[in-house]
Amino acid sequence: MEDMDTSQQTSRDGAAADTYDVIVIGAGPVGQNAADRARAAGLSVAVVERELVGGECSYWACVPSKALLRPVLALADARRVDGAHQAVTGTIDTGGVFARRDRYVTDWDDSGQAGWVASIGADLVRGQGRLDGPRRVTVTPPGEEQGRARTLTARHAVAVATGSSPLLPDLPGIDEARPWTNRQGTDSSRVPGRLAIVGGGGVAVEMATLWQGLGARTTLLARRPLLPRMEPFAGEMVARGLSEAGVDVRIGVSVTGLRRPDPDGPVTLTLDDGGTLEADEVMFATGRTPRTADIGLETVGLTPGSWLDVDETCLVRGVEGGWLYGLGDVNHRALLTHQGKYQARTAGDAIGARAKGLPLDDGAWGDHATTADHHAVPQVFFTDPEAAAVGLSAEQATRAGHRTRTVDVDFAQVQGANLHADGYRGQARMVIDLDREVLLGVTFVGPGVSELLHSATVAVAGEVPLKRLRHAVACFPTVSEIWLFLLKAARE
């Protein structure tokens, strides 16, 4: 592969300036995928990172949370199989669980991922990257290395992949309470005696599953039903699973204030029902905000701290010249690592095509379009039971103007499910587009259903006609036989 060349210039303030074809701000999975695709197109790339190469996902979100959750869920799975549950005689080894997490986050050492950036021929620049007008990025070195800023210039594109941060509510006493966010929820190696979790989305329910499983007496406080963006039965079944595991699930409750007069003492939460709750730690999982407040958006006419409005190629609207891209969480389309990586691959290919003057394939489902962001976003929550969905819920499909029919099936009638776990409890739903006879959405709830989701994603993204889908034979006796029952119910 022949690279386009990198040259040195001098910035208007006299600092050293390096020129690349593409500059990526943020070296998490999204930024890495953008860099990889740009390099595959023969473009020179600089990747800027202010924290750890690998980002939030690798060290404080997806990877550590799943590494911690797997032992909890493995025990739950074992207890559902007669002959195996009798072997579960002790308590979970929290030290072993935390050591497993530490292995998967490589003890928060990013040298391996930094080496990967180098292996694709991209340059890693450590420090805080800020836009400094069109196609310019100023990088301030980190910590003790702080000195003269380095200025990078992009010939073709700057891709912002800086992710998002926890959004803490403006409540009296919140600073005094020193609440956990997802970071403390995944990097702590101490199990609190009592943990209060505020929120009802995916992070909240996963953290409740995790910490209750590790031995914390957990209370989950949510203003609305759990998992509000999924089918209602998903949140209901997850709430029941949490309650059966010992979590005190309280729906329709809000926190109005917090007190923690002793930094080493408990925190008291004041609730809107007039009651209080005392806990050793409190965690807020109440939303995310884009990490765009300090990256120089104002120098290109955008509002600092805002979500980036992008087109189908993830090109940021409202910026002259067509050079700024917003990838992953910052564009607010789907705050999911896998979806951000998909956007980055698509945008990286589009950047390569534009740099070479090639036509774009940016129509629906084209190589340079992020169509799946609107029609086929998959998501999984690793609770007990798991909740997995792709595409539109029944309510979302109706609001979008589709004529639909829903088909619901209880997993209890699937022999493969009952062989997987005695007394398997789960539910599945298909949302059918009546005009085209294709699937608009699929939801599964039950132990291990995350492994069913890709088949549903293929069906939704591929717009596979139901008539054709019936010829995709599920193996007996597996949990995937749920497809047979769903399609049979659809015909009837």
Jot down its keywords.
alpha/beta; Enolase-like, domain 1; FAD/NAD(P)-binding domain; eight-stranded mixed sheet; 492 residues; 22 strands; 3 domains
3D structure, described in words:
This protein is α/β, with parallel strands linked by helices and 492 residues long. The chain folds into 3 domains: 7-54 and 110-165 and 290-372, 3-Layer(bba) Sandwich (FAD/NAD(P)-binding domain), CATH 3.50.50.60; 174-286, 3-Layer(bba) Sandwich (FAD/NAD(P)-binding domain); 385-491, FAD/NAD-linked reductase, C-terminal dimerisation domain (Enolase-like, domain 1). It is built from 16 helices and 22 strands. It has helices spanning 29-40, 55-60, 62-79, 94-104, 111-119, 174-177, 182-187, 202-213, 232-245, 337-355, 372-375, 394-399, 415-420, 453-461, 466-469, 482-491; strands at residues 7-10, 16-25, 45-49, 123-126, 128-131, 136-140, 150-160, 164-166, 194-198, 217-222, 248-251, 255-259, 267-271, 276-279, 281-284, 288-290, 324-326, 378-381, 386-391, 404-410, 427-433, 438-446. Strand 13 and strand 14 form a beta hairpin. The longest helix has 19 residues, at 337-355. The protein is globular.
